[in-house]
Write a sequence for this structure.
């Protein structure tokens, strides 16, 4: 019997699950990461402290523990009945946002000093400098590291499989419990992840080419 | 910078030492496992089992255990009254644990020569077929699919799938009242697959441990937990003022002892041991001291299927 | 560019505005924290009986055993991944095409695979939980470290290699005496960041019932019943603090080494390699 053909619906379900989970968490992490990065470079000390604490806490906590917090603690703080997909997305999104923030910040650091100075001498405010001058240039340098982060996010999303999100890892567990040979399942699951991660690196290479400018 | 590093190091040292030394630590157990019966009478004691000596069998598993000098038994750790590990004392209690001790005694291993190893439901076949455990006693339903990978001795208990709900829940009365309710069970378990059936219309939540499910039930994340009544009664007895079992079993779950496939000698010996302890009254005493505490009287043990 | 360059020294108006932002920001953050604390308080999570369990010797022992198990797996995996990383990096920099291809294939394959799945498969096919975890961590992090080493070697200015060859050194000599010492020094912060990842990832062991710190925490939380139900919240707070403290200690080591490296000007000036560190850590 062939694992893939016999259980194609399961594999497809898991594949789509992983893709959707990754995509939604990616959007959340990029938005949160940008906000936190703005906090970390802002002229307002409490916001800077908030940014630093956010990054330090999230970067040094195992993702599995974050999932436990999301599933077992968050419903007590907010309200019961939050969907597991939402909880998984918030755990993954918050975790990755800390890394996105640091990638953006080092991107900001890579923009030549004169650029921001010139912007300031033209009378631009902090948010104008950031929005019009620094971030557009930083974007180019941070595309490759953000790409790697999104690949890492894809792989990290497997943890959600143990917390009631139907994605590839959950299907692997399910099939191995039904009694299929674990190595046979593994080949197809691994292939599915390879497809997703290669697609992401291709996408980011394309972005890199599109945004490249002669300096 | 310097300050930050120093502060971090100090925190680490503090955390470690406080865990390691624990200022003024108490011994014993926080009120984890009620030791009294449902009606408040003192709990009956678990029996002592006579240990056989000079057991020889043509079984690779037993020979391995004998040369090792101890028996390694797979069990659950988070099922009160069935397979439960007291986190502070490190001791195991429960009906399944008693069954394992009976079987161990008949194979020539006293209780202190039995090492219990926690194996979650999802990893049971793997652990047994790889020989990670000599045999497995932990709410293990005998079915044909599993028989392809491993063998079963027994059954030693007949459970049935039921529902655990909040004490004040009157809307869930059985599997047919689960339409669009959230029901939690363990990934890949028999009860989960059964409740996933479209005819019930339940929205199924799959987590790694029953205690995770019970925690989710307490938090209101799910409406019910479903699995074998034996397991659910244990939880209900643990938190009688908050949880109850619906009490309408809708399946038959014969519990067996999982062992390596085609180790016929060991299977026969385990079947004999079960029969022996069922006949001499140990089985009932063990039940009364564990699962019986939930208030449900002992059943007649199901007939052993020798195959 | 430091953050200070992004904005002018604030004038009276900007100072006033910043003060308003500061007050509003602080208020918002404090409100958020207060909300979380009050909600948990309302559910009785800070009551004495929820925290009582940490006073028992047996439970402290349990958590300590978990911590030791975590550190044991981490120590083995750290050494293993560094050795494997060095070997694979050497493979990728080899002059023989076949060796290069094999090393590249290995590195790309294991880096593209979720560690969780790797560990699960190792466990489900052959290995005992401890070895499945250690081997999984070693394979995965070894491949990441290989890329870090390679980047470090490639970052040494070409002139150094050319000068060494001009002096008549063989390739192994160039590697051992010129490239690797400089590469290691410049990549040390990144290497240690990856070790922090390795430490965090030992927590994946709970999925295959390796009794590490997170597993011990879950067991303690699920097998203790207090008047307020299972003490998941206290356990998550305590276990989380221990993890954060361990990772911070390791990161502090990285920062200390980086500062020391910057002080000595003999070799390549160590680049902060921040972007790489960031990326490596997330994996």
């Amino acid at each position: 019997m062939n694992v893939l053909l016999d259980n194609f619906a399961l594999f497809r379900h898991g594949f789509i699950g992983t893709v959707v989970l990754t995509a939604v968490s990616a959007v959340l992490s990029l938005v949160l990461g940008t906000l936190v990065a703005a906090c970390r470079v802002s002229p307002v000390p409490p916001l800077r402290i908030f940014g630093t604490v956010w990054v330090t806490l999230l970067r040094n906590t195992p993702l599995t523990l974050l999932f436990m917090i999301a599933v077992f603690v968050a419903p007590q703080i907010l309200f019961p009945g939050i969907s597991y997909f939402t909880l998984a997305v918030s755990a993954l999104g918050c975790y990755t946002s800390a890394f996105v923030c640091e990638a953006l910040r080092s991107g900001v650091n890579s923009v030549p000093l004169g650029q921001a100075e010139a912007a300031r001498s033209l009378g631009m405010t902090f948010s104008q400098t950031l929005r019009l001058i620094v971030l557009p240039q930083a974007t180019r340098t941070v595309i490759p590291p953000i790409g790697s982060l999104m690949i890492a996010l894809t792989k990290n999303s497997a943890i959600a499989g143990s917390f009631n999100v139907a994605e590839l890892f959950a299907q692997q567990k399910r099939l191995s419990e039904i009694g299929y040979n674990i190595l046979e399942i593994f080949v197809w699951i691994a292939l599915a992840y390879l497809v997703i991660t290669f697609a992401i690196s291709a996408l980011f290479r394309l972005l890199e080419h599109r945004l490249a400018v002669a300096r | 910078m310097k300050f930050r590093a120093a502060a971090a190091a100090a925190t680490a040292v503090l955390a470690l030492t406080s865990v390691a030394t624990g200022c003024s630590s108490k011994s014993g157990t926080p009120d984890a496992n009620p030791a009294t019966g449902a009606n408040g009478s003192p709990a009956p004691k678990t029996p002592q089992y006579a240990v056989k000596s000079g057991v020889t069998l043509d079984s690779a598993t037993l020979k391995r255990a004998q040369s090792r000098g101890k028996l390694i038994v797979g069990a659950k750790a988070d099922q009160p009254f069935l397979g439960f590990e007291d986190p502070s004392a490190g001791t195991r209690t429960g009906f399944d644990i008693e069954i394992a001790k009976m079987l161990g005694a008949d194979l020539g291993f006293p209780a202190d020569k039995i090492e219990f190893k926690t194996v979650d439901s999802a990893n049971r076949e793997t652990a047994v077929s790889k020989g990670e455990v000599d045999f497995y006693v932990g709410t293990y339903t005998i079915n044909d699919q599993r028989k392809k990978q491993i063998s079963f001795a027994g059954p030693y208990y007949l459970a049935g799938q039921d529902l655990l709900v909040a004490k004040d829940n009157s809307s869930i009365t059985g599997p047919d009242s689960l339409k669009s309710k959230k029901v939690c069970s363990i990934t890949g378990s028999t009860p989960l697959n059964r409740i996933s059936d479209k005819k019930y219309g339940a929205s199924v939540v799959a987590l790694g441990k029953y205690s995770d499910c019970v925690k989710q039930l307490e938090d209101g994340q799910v409406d019910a937990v479903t699995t074998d009544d034996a397991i659910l009664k244990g939880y209900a007895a643990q938190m009688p003022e908050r949880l109850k079992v619906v009490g309408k079993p809708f399946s038959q779950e014969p519990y067996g002892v999982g062992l390596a496939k085609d180790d016929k000698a060991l299977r026969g010996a385990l079947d004999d041991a079960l029969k022996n302890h069922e006949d001499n009254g140990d089985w009932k005493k063990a039940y009364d001291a564990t699962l019986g505490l939930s208030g449900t009287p002992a059943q007649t043990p199901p007939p052993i299927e020798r195959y | 560019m430091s953050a200070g360059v992004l904005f002018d020294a604030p004038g009276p108006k900007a100072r006033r505005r910043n003060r308003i932002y500061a007050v509003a920001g602080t208020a918002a953050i404090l409100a958020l924290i207060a909300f979380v604390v009050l909600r948990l308080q309302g559910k009785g999570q800070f009551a004495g009986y929820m925290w009582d369990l940490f006073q028992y010797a047996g439970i402290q022992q349990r958590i300590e055993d978990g911590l030791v198990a975590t550190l044991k797996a981490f120590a083995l995996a750290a050494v293993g991944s560094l050795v494997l990383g060095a070997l694979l990096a050497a493979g990728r920099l080899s002059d023989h095409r076949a060796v290069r291809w094999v090393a590249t294939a290995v590195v790309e394959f294991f880096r593209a695979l979720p560690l969780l799945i790797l560990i699960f498969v190792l466990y489900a096919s052959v290995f005992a939980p401890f070895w499945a975890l250690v081997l999984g961590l070693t394979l995965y992090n070894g491949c990441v470290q290989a890329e870090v080493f390679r980047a470090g070697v490639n970052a040494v200015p070409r002139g150094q290699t050319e000068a060494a060859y001009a002096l008549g050194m063989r390739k192994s000599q160039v590697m051992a005496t010129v490239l690797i010492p400089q590469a290691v020094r410049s990549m040390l912060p990144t290497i240690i960041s990856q070790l922090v990842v390795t430490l965090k990832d030992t927590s994946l062991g709970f999925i295959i019932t390796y009794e590490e710190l997170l597993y011990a925490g879950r067991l303690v939380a699920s097998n203790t019943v207090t008047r307020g139900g299972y003490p998941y919240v206290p356990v998550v707070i305590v276990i989380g603090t221990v993890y954060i403290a361990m990772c911070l200690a390791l990161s502090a080591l990285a920062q200390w080494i980086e500062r020391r490296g910057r002080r000595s000007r003999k070799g390549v000036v160590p680049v902060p390699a921040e972007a790489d560190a960031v990326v490596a850590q997330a994996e």
